[in-house]
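Lay summary. Proteins are chains of building blocks that fold into shapes, and those shapes determine what they do. In this project we predict the shape from the chain. Here is one chain we studied, written as its sequence of building blocks.
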Amino acid sequence: VLQRLHEILTGQDSSPEFAGLAPERRKAILEILIDTKPNLPGYWRGEAPRAALPAATDVAR
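And here is the predicted shape, written in a compact code that computers can read:
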């Protein structure tokens, strides 16, 4: 549910059902949720998932 909501609010979902939700309103809702729900997954705040982070051995030499 959280991932789906995130997709809608960030504009990744362009379904006709949500076409009436203006980008400014989507952004406002997203910001309110980020500010008031501290337990949201990191991707809501733009944090990279752990699997996407380079391993210590992947660091440039």
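What the prediction tells us: The chain has one domain: 2-48.
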